[in-house]
Amino acid sequence: MHFIKHIMEILILFLVFVLLAGWGFAWYRTVRAEHSPNQKIFSDGVLPSPPPEGFYTGRVAGYHGGWRGKSFESGDKTGINIFGENREKKYPFIFYEAEGLRDAGKQVLRIDYNIPANPFWLRTVTDEIVEYEPGKYIGKLNVQWLPWVPFTLGYFFLER
Predict the structure, then answer these.
(1) Taking Cα atoms as reference points, which of 131, 130, 132, 112 lies closest to residue 122?
(2) What is d(CA 109, CA 130) in angstroms, rounded to the nearest whole number?
């Protein structure tokens, strides 16, 4: 019995360490993101009006994976991410106007992945976009592991 109690204590300490390391990484990324030139572009951007419609090519500095962009249906305020050369549709979202999670007073178009069609890990992700030039958007990728503590992991760009 003493052996099991010892193993449980080790597991709890390991979980606490993993949670603290994850929180530390997210905080570090947030501080870096919010002191980057992209934050200035985001801060100077405006709420997209009208909202995007159709497919927008996406890019993330330093990312060379399969994400190609997002497709928006402004009529029902839904959208989906596009991946790969065959334009596979994955990870649907809803979007709506809201105040920025980390930018008090800033009106953004919030892209919300917290819907039943998505895996549990994606439901903590919330993107926000603003228009910085006609037809060009900068997005902020946020995660919320706790409702009152959003972290910014980085930025992405969308354009026709």
Answers:
(1) 112
(2) 7
Instruction: Check: CB of residue 142 under 8 Å from CB of residue 26.
Output: no
97-128 burial, b if ≥16 CB within 10 A, otherwise e?
Answer: eeebbbbeebbbbbbbbeeeebeeebebbbbb
Judge contact between 28 and 36, C-beta under 8 A.
no
pLDDT at 19: 66
pLDDT surpasses 70 at 20? no
* Sign of CA pseudo-dihedral 135, 71, 142, 100: positive
Largest CA distance in the chain: 67
pLDDT tens readout for residues 137-150: 999 999 987 777 88
84: CB partners within 8 A, 6+ apart: 66, 68
pLDDT band at 97 (very low <50, low <70, confident <90, very high): very high
Pairing of strands 107-112, 88-99: antiparallel
Better-scored residue on pLDDT, 128 or 5? 128
- If one counts the domains in the chain, the total is 1
What CA–CA distance (Å, rounded) separates 129 from 158? 9
Question: Which pLDDT value is given to residue 136?
Answer: 97
Tell me which residue range forms the domain holding 108: 2-159
